[in-house]
Amino acid sequence: MLIRRAVLIDGTATDIRVDGQIADVAPGLAAAPGEAEFDASGGTVLPGLTDHHLHLRAAAAALHSVRVGPEHVRDKAELARVLAAAAPGDDGWIRGIGYHDSAAGPLDRDALDGVAPTTPVRIQHRSGVQWTLNTPALIRVGLAEHPTGILRSSDAGWALPPSEPALAEFSAQLCRYGVTGVTDATPDLGAGDITYLQQQMRQTVRCLAPGKRILHDDELDLEALVRWIRHSHSVGVPVALHCVTAAQLVVGLEAFRAAGRHPLDRLEHAAVVPDALLADLAASGLPVVTQPNFVAERGDQYLVDVPEAEHHELWRVATLLRAGVRVGLSTDAPFGDADPWAAMRAAVHRRTPSGAVLGADEKISPASALALFTGNRPGHAGRVEVGAPGDLCIMTTPPGETLAELDAATVAATVIGGEVVYERSAPAANADRSRAH
């Protein structure tokens, strides 16, 4: 395919020939016989976006789940109304997502029975690692006598009923955002699970499993973690550690120091990075994949829950980059909004939902935010150049406007492997902009 009248992010006007890879980048390229053409009309052409950490099955399931976070539910009566209005899925369950105690207080099986007594209900905490089930749901999973109904994803002896997530629908949504590659961060996926995800998604899918481990503050065992990392490395598997607290980061860094490194090891989230750990983090050489979108989505709650003296430690980006840490950005969908452009804006502006600025020193430029959402690996930005993957995001706006707006609404088309997989509806007068010759 030949993309005409493209403008690169640095302002260079050019044409681009692309198939599985970018074959040519130069002005005035001549179309080959029968070659498809796309008129970018002076819009910016970017490397396809990569979401470096999300959860595909959960994000697809969330498209048809009930949102019960504090932005949607404010007390138990409202939670009861939301759940009563929800239609059970094909499996007979109601699935709630995004819960936090600030919505309607702490949940256990009794509290959930009080607002939803008859239909099996499972409510996922917004951390993504904890579920609360009501009594009908506990009966379904064989845990009728469980005292609290509060279960961690890592707990043994239970499993949610299998369901067929709307992966194709979620993939189409990502195409509208210009996302051409994703890294699934779900732990414990088998080879069959990974193959299935890769078959269902238009995007290139990479997976952290089997080398992903979620750390919990009450289960931090340094010696066991070191043994697991060493074993993973011995069979050629890189390791990704989920670190959201300072204690988890301390243990994670020490475990890597003791166990040694694989070139593709990484740290997920680093939601809290105290000043005292910056030097150790930089010295480790580990890339960090983080989610500043949570400042925009949950920042007001952080202002309440986190001591003011620690606000600057939350979801750091600029400080990490200045320290020489390789950084990749992601949305952590469905625990965060899947729109990478919203996450970029959050990294630039650091505004909470109420408009307060949280961590002003962690702001980065729009160009940096965009670059951190590209490339096959965190800290290795994608480029529009010969030999690069044939995955592109074509914008309706020139570079200055693209960077000023960072808006998914300005994505004109998404190209994966040299094929247009999404094209924004155009006025009738421009309906022939993409055509075959």
Automatic annotation (TrEMBL):
SUPFAM superfamilies: Composite domain of metallo-dependent hydrolases, Metallo-dependent hydrolases. Residues 37-422 form the Amidohydrolase domain. InterPro entries: Amidohydro_3, Metal-dep_hydrolase_composite, Metal_Hydrolase. The keyword Hydrolase applies. GO terms for molecular function: hydrolase activity, acting on carbon-nitrogen (but not peptide) bonds. It comes from the Bacteria. Keywords: Hydrolase. The keyword Hydrolase applies. PANTHER family: IMIDAZOLONEPROPIONASE, PROTEIN LONG AFTER FAR-RED 3. This is Amidohydrolase.
